[in-house]
Amino acid sequence: MHIFFSICILALGIGLFDLLGKAFCIRCRFHPVVPERICIGFFLYFALFQIVAEVMILTKQKLHVLGISWLVLLCLLVAAAGIMVYRNTQKAPAIEARPSRAVRLLFALMTVAVLCECASAVLMQRNIGWDFAYYIGNMMTSVETDTMYLYDGSSGLLRSHLELRYALSSFYMNTAWISQMTGISALVLQKYMAGVLCVLLTNAVVYSFAMEVFQRDKKKTAILVTITVLLTICWDVYDTAAQFLMLRNYEAKAYCANVVLPMVCYLLYRIWKNSKDRKTWAELFLVSFASVAVSMSSLVLVPALIAIMLLAHLIVERRWDSALMIRGMLCLMPNVCYFAVYFASTKGWLIVEV
């Protein structure tokens, strides 16, 4: 029964991401493909959730306080987004031509392939090491004690201070508050809801990237996504991002490797083609802002990718582009600020005592 309710929450979450993504796209006046819009909504959700959650984590508030506060704010966000989308639908919508039979067939095969990948990812979750025990333990302990990161996830003992290596990201507390509100086990929610969501978002990024590269050729895009899914399932090498997706998709690291970093690469590709596109820069800033909320592994990796692109652009163009550099630096700022806080904690300059 818990698995069934987890599937319902997953479907509700995807609908929520789509709504938030629509509102963001209307505000920024651009029209991405539906999978990219859902990804935008996902990052927007965690960008906003991080603001609320971090304040409560660092001030050592109860988990239920976070849950109630975020639920109220989320209802307001959904209402505002719904009004914005409704008003936009009153305008004359663009009518798209119905895809050919070949395209529909390829999309059907792609859908089947993605569903098989989701099933494979669930069945292949055989990793039960220290990481599994610690992350799941953190969430379940938070639910049981109505706290956030105050108790050690593996031993269950009260910490002497907040471990900012984990507490600076609100990813696992998102599952914890849902678990507390619904009564569904955090273990089930994380393994099945978050795990399958990771697979779906990964394919959404691949689809968006392919549509950009192939200039919105749906036939080539569907073929590429299907091939990518087959390679992911069959390429049984542990050190690849694909196998991390199949084995440990419920972890924040898997989201970093398969959703965050590919999304950043996709946006940097678009910026490379057109560095003056403010819509892409706005999307990149959103992803950068939400990257640490999704995974602490993004702390250095995301700014490294952006810095490499800026440096490569400088070398290739052989000129200083002030607008490009300023926008790039702005996208770097969220992770730089997080890194400064984390670095201060490692040096003992910033200690949040329990």
Name the descriptors.
single chain, mainly alpha, 14 helices, membrane, DUF6077, transmembrane, transmembrane helix
In short, what is this structure?
With 354 residues, the protein is an all-alpha fold. The protein is built from 14 helices and no strands. The chain crosses the membrane at residues 41-58, 65-85, 105-124, 192-210, 222-246, 252-272, 284-312, 324-344.
Mean pLDDT rating? 89
Distance between the termini: 37 Å
Oligomer: single chain
Number of strands: 0
Helix-and-strand structural type: mainly alpha
**SSE series:** HHHHHHHHHHHHHH
The proportion of strand residues reads: under 5%
Largest sheet: none
Shape: globular
Question: How many domains is the backbone divided into?
Answer: 1
Helix content: over 70%
Number of helices: 14
Radius of gyration: 20 Å
Low-confidence stretches: none
Keywords: Membrane, Transmembrane, Transmembrane helix
Protein name: Glycosyltransferase RgtA/B/C/D-like domain-containing protein
Transmembrane segments: 41-58, 65-85, 105-124, 192-210, 222-246, 252-272, 284-312, 324-344
Pfam family, one: DUF6077
